[in-house]
Amino acid sequence: MGVSLRSADPRAAEIIKAVTDFENSVEAAEPALAVRDWARVEKLLAAQHRLTHKLANLLDETRDERPQAFSDEVNRRIDGIRDRRADQLRRLIAFNHLVKTRLTMISRSREMRRMNGASQPPARVLDTRQ
After folding, report:
1. Nearest CA among 27, 28, 23 for reference residue 78
2. Counting beta carbons within 10 angstroms of the beta carbon of residue 44, is it exposed (0 to 12), middle (13 to 18) or buried (19 or more)?
3. Which of 40, 57, 54, 47 is nearest to 25 (CA)?
């Protein structure tokens, strides 16, 4: 963090580490999302959940002890984290919607084949589109 995050607050180092760890976790989620490594994404989201509570507790406990410049810089960086996470969540929701739409189409086509009494063999590939 920048010079403005130096503080006489003895817990400042804990706050700085929590914010930095949070930023690193959000950055690490980008490649995991890109390759759809859902196990990694799940671990990172769990870590972010813990960091959210840790950071909230640290900030609450030191509210009256932090210099304003320190608080302003922490808030600026937290805003950046929030914006990046919101973008990631938006993309996850869009992906979820796409998967739901594709599964619905597959289900409907199977129902139509059953209703028409088609004796075709079942499809081997669920969806060949990317």
Report:
1. 23
2. buried
3. 47
